[in-house]
Amino acid sequence: MISVRRIRREFATAILALLIVLAAAAFIGRPRIAAAEPAFSSSHGRTIVIDAGHGGFDGGAVGVSGALEANINLEVARLLRTRLLESGARVLMTRETEDALGETKAGDMAFRKSVIEQDGVDLVVSIHMNKFRDARVNGPQVFHMPKSVEGEKLARFILMELSRDTGKNKREVHSENFFMLRNTKAPAVIVECGFMSNRAEEKLLLDPDYQQLLADAIYNGIERYYGAG
Ligand SMILES: [Zn+2]
Q1: What is the whole-number distance in angstroms between the Cα of residue 68 and the centre of ligand 1?
Q2: Which residues lie at CB < 5 A from ion ligand 1?
Q3: pLDDT tens figures, 136-192
Q4: pLDDT surpasses 50 at 122
Q5: Measuring CA to CA, how many Å separate 211 from each of 14, 72, 101, 220?
Q6: Which class is 42-228 in CATH?
Q7: Which of 52, 63, 122, 186 is deepest in the core (most CB within 10 A)?
Q8: Which of 185, 192, 97 is nearest to 143 (CA)?
């Protein structure tokens, strides 16, 4: 026979157990929300242009397996956009679909220029994948406009994060008078995420997890650039 008191005690124990489970669930759920919305982000309120290189009739570099650079650029650009939006940045994408931004290469580039030269743009990141005749060459590279102190600083932070997170050989940043670097007053970088001419790296560049790693590293580089400023 079970006494009334014992039933009450068991009922109380069951209620207590339920409360513990609910409290634990709430506690476990909390860090995930905190991770998606950082308490403080240095990119908050900044207007950042993300340029996914190439597109449409211009597929960019063709990898060892036949993959097109333009598509990988867009994937990484979209992932970076998500990170920046979560941090409270304002994001302008030059290209949001697989299509080109004009009928011709000149028209396409003119459209990109019209986006990056606008007043109020705080920073420009152009995403590309590389190719080289020597298939052994691999790893990320970051370019900035010659004599741009801020561009070089931004390039260094992004390359630092990329080199560490990819585990690839650390390079120096490069300066080049590229179209997407010279047509904006804002600090601008071209990020060459890796070499599609290297079979192993091309495979990585096509992997969604690696694309996320690249986007996170670029995001962290931008955060460090603003944090250091
Ligand atoms: Zn390219």
Answers
A1: 10
A2: 53, 60, 128
A3: 999 999 999 999 999 999 999 999 999 999 999 889 999 999 999 999 999 999 999
A4: yes
A5: 47, 8, 23, 14
A6: alpha beta
A7: 52
A8: 192
